[in-house]
Amino acid sequence: MFFFTACNQSNSNTTSKDTDTETAGAKVKSGVKPQPDPEVAVIDTADYGRIVIELYPNIAPQHVERFKKLINEKFFDGTAIHRIDPNLGIIQGGDPLTKGGNPAAWGTGNSPYPNVPAEFSTIPYERGTLGAARTSDVNGANCQWYITLKRQPDFDKKYTVFGRVIDGIKNAEIIMTAPTQKQGCAPNDRDPACSRPADKVVIKSVTLQPRSNFPAQ
User: Fold this and answer.
1) Average pLDDT over residues 202-211
2) Which of 98, 141, 159, 209 could cross-link with 80 by S-S, CB 3.0 to 4.6 Å?
3) What does CATH list as the number for 25-178+194-212?
């Protein structure tokens, strides 16, 4: 189960000093401007076009390393976006169990590898931020990820930021507003069917491509 309970403040682009503080039982990196990886992650969906994400290895090196490892292993190919929530402003994917036909299990899957320790930072959760989903353990991230599609201060310094959408943000927003299996849910309704897409949102592939292929943002 992946939690978003009250789950950074200003962008830390004004200084190059790297300092650490503590929050939620984990260190928080501050004062570091994100430096994009030479490669981007290109998520190609079956029905909603592509989403291109730049990655920040200087902010969250272990999360970027895991994400790229799984991409190279084609781990995400054929999975689905299993959670959409316009109220929270997110789409979530990365669960290998979404390749199967038991929606009740979606959102509970992991990779074969150990969990990744928290790499929190003061990079804020804004429209297009890529974050690592985790369990209630701050060091419980593994393979699932999400994209925030609006400012979400409750996530700041509690969930690892490791990238940002640079192309296809509107495709992500269309996915977020797709019909869900259960309609008319209240904002605080925790029934998984309230945030599970009615029609499966399939990810055909996730590939690594040169960052230079995409315009600077």
Assistant:
1) 98
2) 98
3) 2.40.100.10
Residues, the chain, total? 217
Neighbour tally for 7: CB within 10 Å: 17
102-121 tens-digit pLDDT: 999 999 999 999 999 999 99
Pairing of strands 161-167, 129-132: antiparallel
Are the C-beta atoms of residues 125 and 131 closer than 8 Å to each other? Answer: yes
Burial class (CB in 10 A: 0-12, 13-18, 19+), 156: buried
Q: Which residue has the tokens 């700041």?
A: 156
Token pair 């682009």: residue: 13
Q: Pick the closest to residue 165 from 148, 151, 178, 153 (CA basis).
A: 148
Question: Residue 86 class from Cβ within 10 Å (0-12 exposed, 13-18 middle, 19+ buried)?
Answer: middle
Please, are residues 96 and 107 in contact by the beta-carbon 8 Å criterion?
Answer: no
